[in-house]
Amino acid sequence: MLRTCLCLLLAIAVLPFGETTSSIAVTTLPQAEAASAANWEWPVADPHPIIRPYIAPETPYSAGHRGIDIETGLVNEVRAPVDGIVHFAGTVVDRPVLSVLHSGGIITSYEPVTSTLLAEMT
Fold it and tell me: To the nearest 5 percent, what fractions of the chain are helix, strand and coil?
């Protein structure tokens, strides 16, 4: 079993896609967890303008984007917002994705993001 623990802020690389600016999609926390996330940090340094806000789908099972998009410019570092372990690191459809499992079962996912970290093997 390989287990990789993340420090409070863990650096990972963001893939550039041939543009001068980039963005990452970040999943948002369930509303019930928002209060407990008060000590979480932004995954990228300032400035971090939100270029697409969270828009809830009609139902929990509807198709849709379940996160926010943050403009990152030429950022080459994304950090875990709080302690956690790598839950998934790989490709989904055609985009590199990194997901971090935090206490309380909360998972945050970042794309397009690549990492040399490995997901915990269970």
Answer: 5, 35, 55
Q: Is the peptide bond before 47 cis (omega within 30 degrees of 0)?
A: yes
Query: Which SS3 state, helix, strand or coil, does residue 86 take?
Result: strand
pLDDT at 97: 92
Would you state the torsion angle of the CA atoms of residues 61, 64, 65, 66, taken in this order, to the nearest 10 degrees? -20
Determine the pLDDT at residue 6.
Answer: 32
- Which of 17, 6, 66 is closest to 41 using CA atoms? 6
Report the distance separating Cα 3 and Cα 10, nearest Å. Answer: 15
End-to-end CA distance of the chain: 6
Give residue-wise pLDDT tens across range 33-91: 554 556 889 998 888 899 999 988 999 899 888 889 998 887 778 888 999 999 999 99
Domain ranges for the chain: 5-31+42-58+65-114
The pLDDT of 90-112, averaged and rounded, is 91
